[in-house]
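Appendix B. Chain record.
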Amino acid sequence: MMEKKDIKSLTLTELKAEMAALGEKPFRAVQLYEWMHKKLARGYEEMSNIPAAMKAKCGESYQYTALHVAAVQKSAIDGTKKYLFALPDGNMVESVWMRYKHGNSVCISSQVGCRMGCRFCASTLDGLVRNLTPSEMLDQIYAITLETGERVSNVVVMGSGEPLDNYDNLLRFITLLTDENGLHISQRNVTVSTCGIVPVMRELAEEKLQITLALSLHAATDEKRRELMPIANQFSLAELMDCCAYYFEQTGRRITFEYSLVRDVNDTRKDAETLAALIKGMNCHVNLIPVNPVRERAYVQSGRQAVEAFAVFLAKKGINATVRREMGRDIDGACGQLRRRFLENAESAFADGAG
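Structure tokens predicted for this chain:
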């Protein structure tokens, strides 16, 4: 049996061609697209101006992605919400909704699990299960918009998964998200995180998008970075820095360096000096992140004093650095933790039931 096409992952041009093939007029494609990407319909049945016969044809021909909210945790501290979404195949992914003065931000997942193996991340503990489709990435934002009743103005692709390991789907997702016929979020309000897959970063640079690229750096020497991030065995810091300069040259967009501070691992004065020397003269921003403790890993968060001293040192060296405000710390804040707890609880409940 042929797999159905994913209608929510089609561009408007593609949708027009599909509707023509079904014998429908081009304006029907525009209506459909608007229902999916502007009005955020959860299914064909909500599309009041689409004829029943056309809905039936679409139902037979296309898969319609609408994620189901399996769990929501709300922070008592700052109102941050963490969502666990059930995918049609039974897999789970997480997203986080954060309210800031400048608007609402959603952090989405790009894969179920991850194969990058970064030492302080819960997403990678069970490896990569599969890539998310563009519609599954989009629908995390759509479902959250409907649930909160508030517009999302910033999107961060920094949840579970390595976005550049799902490159084609990521590009299509960005196209649909920023399309003026959909939510029309500005490319400048989209941030994509990567652990540093150099050849794909170069490819992305050549797309000349206006998104922000956030590189998970986390260490300023190859030796230390290899301890924390297996990807560092493939690409050296010299190659990475060269690639970051190329990205800026191609796009005019400064790079954000993500640096998770782990107590006694990468948070000393010497580490700050090495980092300052590494990125000296680059048009960049350093995002210092007190690492989220992950139960399965032994890493401990740096103390407040160490974090502030690190930030002050970088500022003195003329490097733009901020300490990321911790959001939703009381609700399984780290990537992959809610999904992992959910799966563990389901397994133990299953075991208890079987007993």
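Further analysis of this model is presented in Appendix C.
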